[in-house]
Amino acid sequence: MKCPVCKKKTNLKDNPYRPFCSKECKFADLYNWLNEEYKIKEEIEWLEKNLPKNVDEVKKEE
């Protein structure tokens, strides 16, 4: 299996950091999650297209 961060080949058996190859990659992944680096592009595009840009637009519709 490949490490999801650095793509190096890693062994799942007896690996305390699985599915990552190392402690560094495990923390790099956590950092990416905490900084919202992982996003679903299609969902973001849909939200930007369909949600009101500001609160005043919502009030006008009511």
Mean pLDDT: 85
CATH topology: Erythroid Transcription Factor GATA-1, Chain A
Order of helices and strands: HHH
Biggest sheet architecture = none
Helix content: 40-55%
Domain unit count: 1
Any idea of the CATH class? Alpha Beta
Unreliable stretches covering 5 or more consecutive residues = none
According to DSSP, the number of beta strands is 0
CATH homologous superfamily identity: Erythroid Transcription Factor GATA-1, subunit A
Structure annotation, total helices: 3
Query: What is the overall silhouette?
Result: elongated
Instruction: Please report the distance between the alpha carbons of the first and last residues.
Output: 53 Å
Identify the CATH architecture.
2-Layer Sandwich
Strand content: under 5%
Q: Classify the secondary structure makeup into a structural class.
A: mainly alpha
Work out the radius of gyration: 19 Å
